[in-house]
Design brief:
Number of domains: 3
Number of strands: 31
Strand content: 25-35%
CATH class of the largest domain: Alpha Beta
Radius of gyration: 30 Å
CATH topology of the largest domain: BirA Bifunctional Protein, domain 2
CATH superfamily of the largest domain: Bira Bifunctional Protein, Domain 2
Distance between the termini: 22 Å
CATH architecture of the largest domain: 2-Layer Sandwich
Shape: elongated
Amino acid sequence: MRWSQAFIPTLRDDPAEAEAVSHRLLVRAGFIRQLSAGHYSMLPLGQRVRAKIDRIIREEMDRIGGQQLHLPALHPGEIWKKSGRWDLMGEELFRFKDRKQADNALGMTHEEVMAILATELSSYRDLPQIWYQIQTKFRDEPRPKGGVLRVREFTMKDSYSLDLDWDGLDLSFDRHYDAYVRIFSRFGVRAVDVEASSGAMGGSQSVEFMVRSPAGEDWIVSCTNCDYRANLERAVSRLPDIDDGDAQSLEQFPTPGIRTIAALAQGFPDLAPPERQIKTLVYMIDDQVTLVLVRGDHDLLEQKLIDATGSTKIRAANGDEIKAALGASAGSLGAVNVEDLPVIADNALDGRSNMVTGANRDDFHFRGVNVEKHIRVKKWAELRTIRQGEACVRCASPLDIWKGIEVGHIFKLGTKYSEAMGALVQDENGESRPIVMGSYGIGLERNMAAIVEASHDEKGIVWPVSVAPYQLVLTVLRADDPATMAAAEDLYKDLRNAGVEVIIDDRLERPGVKFADAELIGIPYRLTVGPKGVDIGSVELTTRAGLVTEDIPISDVVTRIQSLLA
């Protein structure tokens, strides 16, 4: 490719709206352009990178026996209703009615469609199967940001495993895990696996692959000593024991004007430090008023509550709903002797006594609360947010909390979708059994951004060779000098014949402009051809990573570049 004929609109200044490094550099280097919030055009350089990411994914999916297909992006709303996700997905699912007033959706994932295809299978002899596609997905993100990190339209590889039983699913899951490790290694990023919440996907287990980055939107908890890692939504820790002291009797006491954990602790420092308080939160879960209890010094992580209940409808109750259910206002609430409302409590409260909580009477609290004796807990669960420095649940070493970019997610779905869509096969005994499914996703543009976040410097992007738009840029210092241009053209021809992906910068621009553009774009290697070098039969070879430059004979160029790329 000749730079003078290429569409590479580099910019000297950062886009005003860009916060993430990848957003800033991909726009400046001419890889992407925004059409509207959350929608980006892939320019030629961006498309070349995405195509290489696509190829690596396909090679590794084919390696584990995957079969590629392509499914519709437009789905009848009926299939989402059948699986129960029409309501569960909420406003993130793009919905509309067609001319016949039928509900439709733009696919953000394809579990339902894949399960429908799986109804074509009839016998255990047809299994296992791995089907995958690389296709545009849509998600109505409320706050698109970070360039292509959080968007409303994106390309995703989604694959699905179909097995007769859970043992088969375990094998398919492990094959995908290994394939993902190879994929991210080939991308040149260090992605670590973490335990994750399955969220709206459902299923028994999921693992995310995360790249550490300040641009990430997920918080990851990892041990500083062992290999424990989990998304904050899934993480647990080991809490120190608390001495509850001698048993005391349950007693109401006045707390005029006190409405917060901190105020109660300040007013009664010996009686009610935060760790001896029960914080009572009121939620509407499937339209049922529900009390959610955590320790006073802990915070509820709402996704954990969603996972614990499996609810599709959950929100904090409003003031009127709270008053009607409990007869008191927020700040004086508790679950002592509550019989007619379900109570969900965090595990940190299990077995606690001599606690303090609201009395469901404004300006009054209970002391001497024994959780087992005085509160009817319907469900115990991990509900609290883990904090920096807490003890690892495995080895008790301190936990670290950091931000990461999710570059892949794999799920054990089970039979949720096959049962909903009637995807059954006969086993060896002639009995009908629902197919056991797994789902596995990788976002292509998000991985492009993650690679940039992990590999850049103050001058621009530093692409790994495996995904770089070009492997080599041939920079001609004097494109208007016939001898220099002739030598460059010979090298350009020889490199292309040797299979090197090379772009020749034949523009009539100053050397500084050409160098700055090459460094901004991040092409792994640069050959600089100038009049002085041509006179002595030499060119400069610069490695983008570290900008290390050396002189090499023109006669050695092809062999040397081939060895570097190998």
